[in-house]
UniProtKB/TrEMBL annotation:
Coiled-coil region(s): none
Species assigned in the record: Saccharothrix espanaensis (strain ATCC 51144 / DSM 44229 / JCM 9112 / NBRC 15066 / NRRL 15764)
InterPro entries listed in its UniProt record: AAA+_ATPase, ATPase_dyneun-rel_AAA, CbbQ/NirQ/NorQ/GpvN, P-loop_NTPase
AAA+ ATPase domain sequence ranges: 74-229
Pfam families xref list: AAA_5
Protein name as it appears in the record: AAA+ ATPase domain-containing protein
GO function terms (MF aspect): ATP binding; ATP hydrolysis activity
Amino acid sequence: MADNAHLQRPPAEVRFADELARLRDTDRAHRPPGWALSLEAARRFIVGDEAAGISRKFVGDPSLIDRSLVTLATSRGLMLVGEPGTAKSLLSELIAAAVCGESTLTIQGGAATTEDQVKYSWNYALLVAEGPTPRSLVPAPMLRGMAEGKVVRFEEITRCPLEVQDCMLSLLSERVVAVPELPGADGMVFARDGFNVIATANTRDRGVNEMSAALKRRFNFETVFPIADFGTELELVEREAGRLLERSGVGAPPRRDVLEVLVRTFRDLRGSGPSPADRLSTVMSTAEAVSVAHAVGLRGWYLRGEPGSAADVVECLAGTAAKDSPEDLARLRRYLEQQVPRRKGTQWQELHRARHRLPG
Ligand SMILES: Nc1ncnc2c1ncn2[C@@H]1O[C@H](COP(=O)(O)OP(=O)(O)O)[C@@H](O)[C@H]1O
Ligand SMILES: [Mg+2]
C-alpha cells in the first residue's frame, strides 16, 4: 500500500481493501454468478456495519442499495439519476468495487466521447506491423468488462452524443462486442457472468431528456436524493471534511459550531430553510458543502494556524455559491444581511460581521 500513500484519491477497492477482504472471508450468503460478494455483504460494504468494523460510506435509504444490486444481477443496466453532488458517482464506484472488486472500468461521458472509448481501438504501430490481431487490439472498458465479467461504469451518459449512446443499445441487448476486423472466434467477445453497466446522469445540466427512449428501456432507473436530515448531513460533512483536512496536512479538526453554520447556510441557500426565496440557482449540494468545509479548514490552518471560522465560510462561499451569476451573488448578500442576523450564536454573528468580505 506504500505506493498508494501519496495518491490524492485511490479507487474504492484500494481505499477499503481491508474491509472488502474481511467481507469476502466471512461472506456465507448466496452470490449471483460472477459476483465477488453476496448482495447482503455488498450492501454492508456500502451502508456500513458498525459491529463488523465496516464504515458507512453512502448515507441514504438502504433499500435503494438493495434495488440497485438486484438490478445489477439481472440483465438490465442500472441508471442512477439525481441532482449534481448527491453521490451518484460515489455510489456507482462503491457498488462496482463490491460486486466485482474493481471500480476503474469507467467511461467518462462527454461531448467528445467516441465509440472507440466505449468498445475498442487499435495500437497503430502494431496494426501497421502485423495487421489486426488480438495483440494490436486496445480494449476499452465495455470490451474488458464483458470479457472479464466485470461491472462497467458509464459516468454522465447523457452528455454523450446520441450515436455513442446508441452503440450501447446492441451491446446491452446482445451482450457481445463484435470486432469485425479480427478473424474467427476472436471477432466476437461475449459477455461473461458478472458483467453489467452502471450509468449515472444528472438531472440538471444536460438531463435525462437527452437520452434516447431505446436506451432508457435497457436500464432500471434509481433516483438518488439529497440528504434530507440536517444532523445526518452535518455528520457526513464533518467526517468527510475531517478526512480531507487530515490528508491536506491540517493539524486541527474542523470546529463543530462552524460546520453547523456552514451546513445550515447551505440548506437555506438550497431553498429548504425558513425563507425559500433564498434559493440560489447554483446547486448547493452536500458535495459542495464538503469542499467548502475543506477550504475553510485550509484557510484557517495555513493562513493563521487555527481551525477555520465563520468568516472563512464567507470567503469560500462566493466562489461556490455565486460562481459567475450576479443574481446569485445578490441573493447571497441579501441572505447574509437579512436572514443571518436572526440566528443565534457567536458563529452566526461572525458570519454576519464578515458579510462585507463578499467580492463585488
Ligand atoms: N448521501 C451521501 N452519502 C455519502 N456521501 C455523500 C452523500 N451525498 C453527498 N456526498 C458527498 O458528495 C461526494 C460525492 O459526490 P459525487 O459522487 O461526485 O456526486 P454526483 O456524482 O452525484 O455529482 C462524496 O464524496 C461525499 O463527500
Ligand atoms: Mg458524478
